[in-house]
Amino acid sequence: MEQEYKVDTKRIYDTGMSNGGFMSGRLACDLSNRIAAVAIVAASLSENTAATCHPVKPVSVMIIQGSDDPLVPLEGGTLRRGGSGGSVLSHQAAVQKFVELNRCNSQPKEEHLADRANDGTTVDAEWYASCADGTQVHGYVVNGGGHTWPSEMPYLPAAMIGKPTHNLDASELIWRFFSEHHR
Fold first, then answer.
1. pTM
2. How many domains does the chain have?
């Protein structure tokens, strides 16, 4: 890509949902010298990735996960419904892993977003802003939310993947997060 297109190598980001989210976490661990920030949606960190995660440089990380995700349990453990059966960290453990790796101030700023969209979901957010090299770690739990991309129409019936939230626009939130971070 860099040979074909003009790429600002100080602003390389990655985001993904579900398997793509797990890949984003892996890139934060393995390509920290190239990646400025990642956003993980409807995923966490696999226990294997977490055990071998030793980034060369701090990477800003955002993790968004639904409390009622039927595939990736918020509390961690074994992936559900036809997954590989791999084990994952809880949402909180994944956030804390990056807080420790980025040497963040241990006291986050917290906010609760009410159900303004009247869709039965709320959002709890925590931000760690005082981290090494100006990085940040943000965690969002969509209370009542499923295995979905916040603010988008669901790709399968709610009975299979849970409810989406419209109280948070993930695409806008992630873009703002990325635009604030560079290598």
1. 0.95
2. 1
